[in-house]
Amino acid sequence: MTVLTARVTARPSERRELAQALLTWAAAARREAGAVMSNVYEDVEAPAVFGLVAEWKSREDLEAHLRSEGFSVLMGALELLGDPSRLAITRMDDDSADDTLRTIRKQRETKS
Q: What is the pTM of this model?
């Protein structure tokens, strides 16, 4: 599994337009090959700050998305409507995800 995350801050006067661009991107990304999920969130403590999370079956699927016209359109919208964004790509195979969850559970049990 490969996950793309981003934090985007809209310029106050452009919040609505950026939100629409993000929602359009998420809907289109969900239909691409290898897409598992794609969601947009708005920070309830900081209006006009958005989070994007998109999960892909493989790094190759994500790379194909990053080369797509839809992603290019998103990046253009971010330049016009938002402040600089922070993008991150995380690759986590099933074993490492399971190991991470086991570690967290053990830490909680130890604290109890």
A: 0.78
